[in-house]
Amino acid sequence: MSRNHINHILQLSVEESKRFVDSFETVLLDCDGVLWTIFDSIDGARTALELFQTHGKRIKLITNNSVRSFASYRQQMAELGFDLQESDIIHPARSVVQYLRRCNFDGLIYCLGTEHFKSTLRQAGFQLIDGPTQPVPESFHQILATVHDGAEVKAIVIDVDFNASYPKLMRAEMYLKQNTDCVLIAGASDRTIHVKPDCNVIGPGWFVEILEKTAGRRAVMLGKPGYHLRAGVLQECGVEQPSKTLLIGDMLEQDMAFASLCGFQKLLVLSGVTTKQQMQLAKHTAEEPDYYADSIKDFAALFEKINAF
Hints:
The structure is a single chain. This protein is an alpha/beta fold. Helix content is 38%, strand content 18%. The protein has helices spanning 14-22, 45-54, 70-79, 92-102, 115-123, 140-147, 166-178, 205-215, 227-236, 252-262, 276-280, 298-307; strands at residues 7-8, 26-29, 58-62, 89-90, 108-112, 127-129, 153-158, 183-186, 192-196, 199-202, 220-221, 245-249, 265-269, 291-293. The strands form three sheets. Strands 1-14-13-12-2-3-4 form a seven-stranded parallel sheet. It has a five-stranded parallel sheet with strand order 6-5-7-8-11, with helices on both faces. Helix 5 links the parallel strand 5 (108-112) and strand 6 (127-129). The mean pLDDT is 93.
């Protein structure tokens, strides 16, 4: 059970509000559940972004959703009045590419992911195989021929795959077991994906967990809250003093825990996955936010309070 009192940003006094706003220089925003649902912008998002910019805050985005293309993110941010550059957003496909480059990876990759995710890796020069894309006959002879093909795969990369299947997981497991040097890499680790109010769907985190348990090794997590993501985020965002970065997210395990790992300040919005009760019952201190808000819209009232004095 949570032991600390968590302040709602609109319950802060004027002086506390000023200290809070002055305490961060960079705002690192999760996207889904914070700026928009899968379908629509969240009320007040545009105003909040404008206020952050007006008050000299640097804006960066971080997401576990690499289903969407950069062009799609840029278009949606343009609708919110923000000119998004590729360097302004951190998402799993780019993080995986950067990690593989840092490791000087050279080999065949078996990938479970969307076509956009896979094309990002291919465009970066990596060799991928995937599938099966068609239903497999219900025969042990057929399934073994499909999943035990002897390909010399050196990495399994798993992210959101709308066509994930039992044969794909079996194939990934087979590669991991037949080559002890084969590395398991995960993009998004979310167990829940927030689609719209009162509608959450199963996320890829469960499939990552299956492969970790069956193969007996931990995945390199390159989505929040992965440890291996931390160094890339600090470098890409140019963060010299982590405590002067405010991460705003809607999930305890992915957003708040990752912010704790990085040494960022933590603000939870209740416009996405997490409810107030879940926030109050956070299992670990690392998942407890420093502040919370009903939604990003509350920043309009917060800045109004400050500017009134």
